[in-house]
């Protein structure tokens, strides 16, 4: 390609980028800010990442600041801003349990919150440094701790709608995920969040459907929140079978060359996906995450040639499970045993992308830390046992003192 053609292409690319930026800026010119601030209702499941666009702002405002309040009129307000050279946060850098001030990012006036927790529920305002608000959201992060799994292949059905007078409580399901495996029997699921319908909702909160909001919305009166508190999110699971896409011919040719140049009986082992090696101490817990996967993705796990289906390994199916998959698509191994050795393969959106070769050893020293779940469980069990023994000891001695006082109480005659 000549220099003139390259220059023309670069100019055209720059014009397209400029046109895209102008188009994005024109959105704010076409969308006037409301005279009275309203709250858009949005609901998500815990550990998910969400984005809140600032749909309107004055043209003269070059950058926005996001504010967070737990309740309307709260005296405590968090200021979410990326001014003063703040580095943008990436989803892969976020740790579970960290504060929201290190789990957010602002890009093109939109607020991104990574791995949201139920404590992040509340009101989010898009505004300026001076505290002028343009747009607002009512965000409801529903916990996945009591999430109920329903397996369609076993004939199970989701919970029926609940009616309490004018109050209607129901589950709204998202779209089905893609099949989590290809070429073999896989699974797909859809997440259902709690919603309600009532004429007693606050008119300041904007809904997509009349008188319908998520169960944790600020628009729900306090007297109704206790009624819907027991309605948990649901997970609907069913089997699926899809063919795999054609493999890369280049990779197949490379494998053919390996087989040709290798000696008979000593062919090199070439993994289909990148393999990560990990050594775990016997009796300790392990949590494996699929690279690049999010809770809303279709993720599957295999151990060597064994498929770990959610019908058997989903968290909550059996209380005594030692190996299970949580609702965030992570694989948990509690109290590692020698039989856990092997390669654990990870599927994401129907494609096998990574493997983890696990070796278990009884050697080595691991310092105890409160960040270790087993250490915390041991400390909690020790404290509970100590308190229980202390309570029994005090109760026995109190009973003995009472019996002694009643037995030797002096009798006074009139």
UniProtKB/TrEMBL annotation:
What's in the GO CC field? membrane
Q: Where in the cell is it found?
A: Membrane
InterPro entries found in the cross-reference section: FAM187A/B (IPR039311), Ig-like_dom (IPR007110), Ig-like_dom_sf (IPR036179), Ig-like_fold (IPR013783), Ig_sub (IPR003599), Ig_V-set (IPR013106)
Provide the alphabetized UniProt keywords. Answer: Glycoprotein, Membrane, Signal, Transmembrane, Transmembrane helix
**Protein known as:** Ig V-type domain-containing protein FAM187A-like
Bilayer topology reads: Single-pass type I membrane protein
Please indicate if the UniProt record lists Signal as a keyword: yes
Q: Where are the transmembrane segments?
A: 383-406
> Which N-terminal residues, if any, form the signal peptide?
1-18
């Amino acid at each position: 390609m000549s220099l003139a053609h390259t220059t023309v292409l670069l100019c055209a690319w720059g014009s397209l980028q400029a046109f895209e930026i102008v188009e994005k800026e024109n959105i704010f010119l076409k969308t006037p800010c409301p005279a009275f601030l309203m709250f858009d209702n949005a609901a998500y499941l815990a550990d998910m990442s969400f984005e809140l666009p600032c749909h309107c702002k004055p043209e003269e405002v070059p950058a926005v600041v996001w504010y967070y309040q737990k309740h309307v009129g709260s005296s405590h307000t968090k200021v979410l801003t990326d001014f003063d050279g703040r580095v943008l946060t990436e989803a892969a850098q976020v740790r579970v349990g960290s504060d929201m001030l290190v789990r957010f990012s602002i890009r093109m006036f939109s607020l991104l919150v990574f791995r949201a927790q139920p404590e992040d529920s509340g009101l989010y305002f898009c505004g300026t440094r001076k505290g002028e608000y343009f747009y607002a959201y009512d965000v409801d992060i529903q916990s996945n701790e009591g999430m109920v799994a329903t397996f369609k292949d076993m004939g199970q059905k989701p919970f029926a709608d609940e009616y309490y007078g004018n109050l209607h409580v129901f589950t709204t399901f998202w779209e089905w995920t893609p099949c989590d495996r290809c070429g073999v029997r896989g699974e797909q699921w859809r997440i259902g969040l709690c919603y309600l319908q009532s004429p007693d909702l606050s008119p300041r909160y904007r809904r997509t459907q009349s008188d319908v909001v998520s169960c944790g919305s600020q628009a729900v009166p306090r007297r109704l929140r206790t009624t819907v508190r027991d309605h948990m999110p649901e997970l609907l699971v069913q089997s699926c079978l899809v063919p795999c896409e054609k493999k890369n011919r280049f990779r197949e040719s490379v494998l053919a060359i390996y087989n040709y140049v290798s000696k008979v009986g000593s062919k090199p082992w070439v993994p289909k996906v990148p393999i990560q090696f990990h050594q775990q101490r016997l009796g300790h817990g392990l949590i494996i995450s699929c690279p690049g996967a999010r809770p809303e993705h279709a993720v599957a796990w295999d151990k060597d040639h064994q498929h770990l289906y959610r019908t058997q390994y989903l968290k909550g199916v059996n209380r005594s499970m030692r190996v299970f998959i949580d609702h965030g698509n992570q694989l948990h191994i509690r109290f590692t045993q020698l039989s856990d050795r092997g390669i654990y393969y990870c599927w994401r959106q129907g494609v096998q992308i990574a493997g983890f070769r696990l070796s278990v050893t009884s050697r080595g020293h691991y310092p105890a830390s409160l960040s270790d779940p087993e250490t915390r469980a041991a400390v909690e069990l020790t404290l509970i046992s100590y308190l229980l023994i202390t309570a029994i000891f005090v109760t026995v001695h109190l009973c003995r003192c009472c019996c002694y006082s009643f037995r030797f109480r002096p009798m006074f005659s009139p």
